[in-house]
Write a structure and sequence with these properties.
CATH class of the largest domain: Alpha Beta
Helix content: 40-55%
Distance between the termini: 7 Å
CATH architecture of the largest domain: 3-Layer(aba) Sandwich
Structural class: alpha/beta
Largest sheet: 6 strands, parallel
Strand content: 5-15%
Oligomer: single chain
Length: 302
């Protein structure tokens, strides 16, 4: 069974004129190391990042961005594109990733799309037609509703308007919750109906996962390793450059909590901070698997 994925890949390449291989999975499942192994097996593959947070410069440790040592000579694209005060969007990602895929095909390379950002991946693997642009007045009204009670009432409204979206949106994630409700109000429909997709048959999707208990342990341990590697100092460096909680990238999981801990005078224990971040990582992994559950195209690796 260890080489089963090699058989799947070989059969896929035999019939695909323009191959695109996707490696997805929950946080801390081991996507990066597997993608490097896969790239070496293929010999002419290059990796396209599909993690929305790894698009940002200066955010390496807390996003588990692939290191020069880990890359092992495999070219990587769509890393370190934006400054933390710039906003990355799924629409931008779809355009840039599509251009890069076409460019790699033209040069005889095999693109590997690797990451865990569900919406960003969906723009490519489902050829997602994205939801309508935001309305500033509507966005402000919904944001004010969120701020009344930190999203509790707004989340209940999303559960009523679009139960499926509510399953994968964390009510504490203000941008995602506000946008989900905004889509419902702009279109008078659910996100599934408003955001149409056309699944592609030309893509091989490989899923990397772990048994739940093992994944939980890996998430917990990875947070500890990130702190030991200097995650707090990385956040301090970003603050020193003038980035703050109002910037899009600084709202990212982990960075937001560490920034608040620093702002509070570092009064709480590091152990409590680490556990808080790990808990949110575990919740995110659960939402990722909820998103992909039932997608028959995904070949989950043993």
């Amino acid at each position: 069974m260890m080489n089963d994925w090699k058989t799947q890949v070989s059969l896929y390449l035999e019939k695909s004129a323009k191959p695109l291989i996707v490696v997805l999975g929950p946080t801390a499942s081991g996507k990066t190391s597997f993608s490097i192994e896969l790239a070496h097996y293929l010999g002419n593959a290059e990796v396209l990042n599909a993690d929305s947070r790894q698009l940002y410069r200066g955010m390496d440790i807390g996003t588990a961005k692939v290191t020069q040592e880990e890359i092992q000579g495999v070219p990587h694209h769509l890393l370190d594109v934006f400054d933390p005060n710039e906003e990355a969007t799924a629409g931008w990602y779809k355009q840039e990733a599509s251009l890069m895929i076409d460019s790699l095909h033209a040069s005889g390379k095999i693109p590997l799309l690797v990451g865990g950002s569900m919406l960003y991946l969906s723009t490519i693997i489902d050829d997602l037609s994205l939801a309508p642009v935001t309305d500033a007045v509507l966005r402000e009204r919904i944001t004010q509703e969120y701020e009344m009670d930190s999203g509790l009432t707004l989340y209940k409204r999303l559960q009523s308007l679009d139960p499926d979206s509510a399953l994968v949106v964390d009510y504490r994630n203000q941008p995602h919750l506000v946008r989900a409700v905004e889509i419902c109000e702009l279109t008078g429909s659910t996100k599934a109906h408003a955001v149409q997709s056309a699944p592609s048959s030309e893509i091989l999707i490989l899923g990397v996962n772990r048994p739940r208990e093992e994944l939980v342990q890996r998430i917990n341990e990875r947070v500890i390793v990130m702190f030991a590697a200097g995650w707090v100092d990385e956040v301090r460096a970003l603050i020193a450059k003038g980035y703050g909680p109002e910037n899009p990238a600084m709202k990212s999981h982990g960075y937001k909590e560490i920034m608040q801990w620093i702002a509070d005078g570092e009064s709480g224990s590091l152990e409590d901070l680490q556990e808080s971040i790990a808990a949110k990582g575990r919740q995110y992994a659960k939402r990722q698997m909820t998103w992909w559950r039932g997608d028959a195209r995904i070949h989950w690796l043993p």
